[in-house]
Amino acid sequence: MLKTAAESAVGGKLKPEDAVFAEMIGLTVKIVSQIQNAIRKVDFWRDRASRQALETDVYNELRWCRVNGQRVFLEGVRELATRIVDLSYHRRRYLVE
């Protein structure tokens, strides 16, 4: 999902040697780790405030994602964060160790 959004933002396919590609790998690992830590709480998905806090954390990670001083995601950051958290909910059994 992040790679597709980044490709849309930069206007083309990302190649493994691109700096944005490497940043997306690191960002993905960081966000997945944050999600895994957050959803360990009992009844996390039933607590709206916890879910909104996670969405805000993901949003901030996306907003501060930069390559060579330039933001990678310029538009639709809030929507992307929401989609990531929604996907996490649907894939939650794979995220819990």
Provide a descriptive summary of the structure in words.
This protein is mainly alpha-helical and 97 residues long. It contains five helices and two strands; from the N terminus they run H-H-H-E-E-H-H. A two-stranded antiparallel sheet has the order 1-2. Strand 1 and strand 2 form a beta hairpin. Helix 2 (19-38) packs antiparallel against helix 3 (48-63) and helix 3 packs across helix 4 (77-90). The radius of gyration is 14 Å and the shape is elongated. The two termini are 22 Å apart. The mean pLDDT is 93.
Layout of helices and strands:
Elements: H1 2-10, H2 19-38, H3 48-63, E1 66-67, E2 70-71, H4 77-90, H5 92-95
Antiparallel strand pairs: 1-2
Helix pairs in contact: 2-3, 3-4
Derived from helix and strand composition plus strand pairing, the structural class reads mainly alpha
Distance between the termini: 22 Å
SSE sequence, one letter per element = HHHEEHH
Proportion of β residues?
under 5%
Total helical segments: 5
Low-confidence region ranges: none
Order of strands, widest sheet: 1-2
Main beta sheet? 2 strands, antiparallel
Instruction: Report the strand count.
Output: 2
Question: What is the averaged pLDDT score?
Answer: 93
- How helix-rich are the residues, as a percent range? 55-70%
**Overall geometric form:** elongated
Radius of gyration: 14 Å
Number of domains: 1
